[in-house]
Design a protein that fits this description.
- The complex is a heterodimer.
- Chain A is mostly helical.
- Chain A has 8 helices and no strands.
- Chain A folds into 2 domains: about 90 residues, Orthogonal Bundle (Rna Polymerase Sigma Factor, Chain: A), CATH 1.10.1740.10; about 80 residues, Arc Repressor Mutant, subunit A, CATH 1.10.10.10.
- The two termini of chain B are about 45 Å apart.
- Chain B is built from 5 helices and no strands.
- In chain B, helix 3 runs antiparallel to helix 4.
- Chain B is an all-alpha fold.
- Classes of the chains: A mainly alpha, B mainly alpha.
- Chains A and B meet through helix 2, helix 3, helix 4, helix 5 and helix 6 of A and helix 1 and helix 2 of B.
Amino acid sequence: MPHEPALDNDLIKAYRDRGDQAAFTELVCRYREQVFRVALSILGPSFAAEAEEVTQEVFVRVHHAIDSFRGEAQFSSWVYRIAFNQAINVKQRSRYQKPHLREDVLAVCPSPLADPLRQFEDSAQRTLVMECVEELPEIYQAAVRLHYWMGEGMDEIAALLGVAPGTVKSYLHRARALLHEMLKERGMGNA
Amino acid sequence: MPEERMESLLRHSMAVDPVPRLSSNFDRRLAQRLAPARLKPQARLVMIAYTLIAILTSVWALSSLPVPTGTYFLLLLAAIAALVPFSYAWTLNRPTEPSRPGGSGRAHPRRNGPTA
């Protein structure tokens, strides 16, 4: 007979009432990847280490505040909201911090076989797009990165950001329109 | 169509960065952070000995002064009571209800969302 996974509220109750450590571990296992994605979607690809720190901090906060969770909303929404706010705080603190050098940075050195001009143009275009994404409102950045970078669908993004799927579509539409304008202003007329 | 062009431009630009994953020691580090901070038995003995010596020294020093016994017990109690604001500040530092996402951004997601 297949074993039914425990509901979040049952796990919370088990942890609160009996101090069941395994129940809390199960909650962490269920949501750590999504929390990391929410953090990463706000902080951006250059701040993966910070996104992991945010994920840690979120579960520490959940652990401390689990008694104040009244179960009126879904546990996941509560956790994602903490993650979103925590990532925004970290982003504001690290706004003037240089991003980390990515591991693959040397891998994009022009090879003698590839077309160096094409590579340069591609790289410049990509840098410009990423800079413009960085200037979008945080909620649009999150939606754009979750959809185009991480490949999440509308329903998943809606759950992670705590909004309706229609709102996510609207965020993406407005984000694309804003990006189009920004790129045009910066001389990328074919955007 | 600019919409479609933007779609493909975004996909193309973002495909370069691989999506990172949580590091393999994430669970271990989290467990360390959540573990209650307990002193080792030797450290606890040192702390108890220090506290006792501090109290006895204070009592001895105060008793040599021309101060009534009640006053120096009051001073000792005041020193202990001074710790209360610190423990209160510690509890205040704990997180409670977070605010909704999007609050600091220019765009605002659902205002009537669920409250935890």
